[in-house]
Amino acid sequence: MYDVAIVGGGIVGLSTAMTLGRQYSNLKILVLEKESQWGHHQTGHNSGVIHSGIYYKPGSLKAKLCRDGCAGMVAFCEANNIAYDVCGKVIVATEINELPYLEKLYQRGLENGLEVCKLSAEETQEIEPHVRCLASIRVFSTGIADYKQVCQAYVKYARDQGADLKLNTRLENLVKTPDGYTLETTVSTFSTRFLVNCAGLQSDLIAKQEGANPQAKIVPFRGEYYELVPEKRGLVKHLIYPVPNPNFPFLGVHFTRMIDGSVHAGPNAVLSLKREGYSKFDFDFKDFADVMTYGGFWKLAARHADEGLKEIIRSFSKAAFVRSLQRLIPEVESADLVPTHAGVRAQALAPDGKLVDDFLLIQRDRAVHVCNAPSPAATSSIEIGKEIVRQISAQLGTVLNI
Predict the structure, then answer these.
(1) Does pLDDT of 344 surpass 90?
(2) Residues 201 and 279 in one domain
(3) CATH of the domain at 394
(4) How far lies 152's CA from each of 43, 92, 146, 235, 401, in Å?
(5) In the 8-state DSSP scheme, what is residue 118?
(6) Are 366 and 175 in contact, with CB atoms under 8 Å apart?
């Protein structure tokens, strides 16, 4: 009998295990991960950005946990000799109609307590000589890190604190019992008093198995990237983002320096035909049907048909992708870019067709379900782990007398 079982060995699940072990030294903690490595899905395919929190609604869980998580992640990397760089980023307006939205972003940054400043076109070129824009915002706290190394550090802390971490162990059935839950897996059957669902792309399905109603469905969006060839990496000094389209729920293609020195460009955002589908041609009938029969998806598609079509075109046309990047750096040419990894975003979508904006944590009797934790979850992972532990602490105290 375990005290707490965590389903999902991504960065949020591992952070939760580490945080539980630090706060409660005598807990028996179990982490189940169906893959052969930790942080395989969203964590292992993300952009490596330490986000500042500038985009998120003031007072939201995302805004708070990302701002605190940004500082906490830098401190964690420093303390554990993990590669990172607080390089900062610029958000650039390239058209006149973007300037009011740039101003709103600047004000939001101030409301969220961030160090931001406005730059003219000339001032922007002083720090990013190849960018052409009308104006920009500089966000100083944005950085980059190696989140795979972060995951390994979380694993080490959790194991050192006595947690039982199991790879290649897929949850197949979940049964509520008077004392908690029985977890039937591909390896064995486990019992636990508390359940924490950090299963990312599978999180809504597990929540429903447990009896929760997430009031949203995970819809997978694939983000595809190109990489600048080595001799063109000098075109990018910081991270370079466009002003996001206020009528479209994604940030737009941008340039990201990676911790290994490479520079990635992207991502676009297209529907993945499989929850864990990293290729254009990955397909799973059950996953596909799950989305196609969901009214919320069709409402989203109708609302953003024009932008959605542009994303699909970019997915299949390198020339279209390059044109989007040339809005930021006109010098970029098709020959400067080679395809690189893709990621899949586990995005919760409400029945009304609106993407769930905030992190979504559903508290139940003896369970917490993390049903929306896309970007900036890696940045915020330490703080999300603390929030999960905070939410279950009262129940832990009652049931376990701690």
Answers:
(1) yes
(2) no
(3) 3.50.50.60
(4) 12, 35, 10, 32, 32
(5) E
(6) no
**Domain shared by 152 and 134, yes or no:** no
What's residue 307's pLDDT? Answer: 86
- Contact between residue 116 and residue 109 where contact means Cβ atoms under 8 Å apart: yes
Average confidence score pLDDT of the chain: 95
Cα 246 to Cα 260: distance, rounded to the nearest angstrom: 32
**Kind plus residue range of the DSSP H or E element containing 109:** helix 99-111
Check whether residue 23 and residue 116 sit in a common domain.
Answer: no
d(CA 220, CA 7): 19
Contact 136, 92 (CB under 8 A): yes
Domain count of the chain? 3
pLDDT value at position 242? 96
pTM of the full predicted structure? 0.95
Residue 197: which domain range? 2-44+148-215+358-400
37 and 158 together in one domain = yes
- What confidence tier does 252 reach under pLDDT thresholds 50, 70, 90? confident
The whole-number average pLDDT for the span 148-175 is 97
Domain assignment present for 98: yes
Quick one: tokens of 394?
């009262």
Task: Indicate whether 370 and 350 sit together in one domain.
Answer: no
| pLDDT tens readout for residues 266-301 | 999 999 999 999 999 999 999 999 999 999 999 999
pLDDT in tens, 215-225: 999 999 999 99
Nearest to residue 168, comparing CAs of 62, 50, 34, 42? Answer: 34
Count of other CB atoms within 10 angstroms of residue 24:
19
Distance of CA 140 to the CA centre of its chain: 20
Q: How far apart (Å, rounded) are the C-alpha atoms in residues 333 and 395?
A: 57
Q: Does residue 21 sit within a domain?
A: yes
If asked whether residues 343 and 255 sit together in one domain, one would say yes
Question: What are the structure tokens assigned to 169, written together?
Answer: 């162990």
226 & 291 share domain: yes
Q: Which phi and psi angles does 189 have, rounded to 5°?
A: -115, 135
Place of tokens 């190394």: 149
